[in-house]
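Milestone 3.1: sequence recovery, worked example.
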């Protein structure tokens, strides 16, 4: 069962809907890069341009033989299931099953995209937060693989 703790403090300010991102409480660059390295090292993942109008975002896609999740486990009918925004933002968008999306929102870790079927997840501010954000990324990955916990 997917579960995460409540996020401490107030939610960051966001902008959107296009581009949709985080405006303050920006994750330190070292944590953004660590998160990116973890994301890109997942089995079956390949790097390709994002399918959203945020060309500076770094996207991960899942090879068809690894990704057997439902259509809404991918962004815009592509193989992309997550992308990390540029360093001045530090948040990420990813797909999640409905219950996980609700839990992430209620725990204060992000908000649903206003017009797309993705979840904005706030960038991690410290070592503890990167582990929570990583659990959210792994839930998205499991969803895309057809193995989510719902």
């Amino acid at each position: 069962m997917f579960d995460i703790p409540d996020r401490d403090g107030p939610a960051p300010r966001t902008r959107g809907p296009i581009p949709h991102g985080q405006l303050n409480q920006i994750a330190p660059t070292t944590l953004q890069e660590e998160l990116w390295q973890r994301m890109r090292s997942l089995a079956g993942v390949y790097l390709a341009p994002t399918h959203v109008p945020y060309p500076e975002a770094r996207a991960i896609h899942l090879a068809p033989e690894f990704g057997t999740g439902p259509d809404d486990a991918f962004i815009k009918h592509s193989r992309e299931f997550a992308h990390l925004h540029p360093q001045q933002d530090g948040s990420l968008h990813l797909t999640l099953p409905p219950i996980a999306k609700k839990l992430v929102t209620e725990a204060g870790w992000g908000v649903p995209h206003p017009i797309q079927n993705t979840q904005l997840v706030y960038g991690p501010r410290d070592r503890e937060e990167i582990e929570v954000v990583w659990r959210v990324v792994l839930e998205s990955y499991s969803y895309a693989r057809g193995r989510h916990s719902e």
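The domain at 34-144 is CATH 3.90.1150 (Aspartate Aminotransferase, domain 1). The first helix runs from residue 29 to 40.
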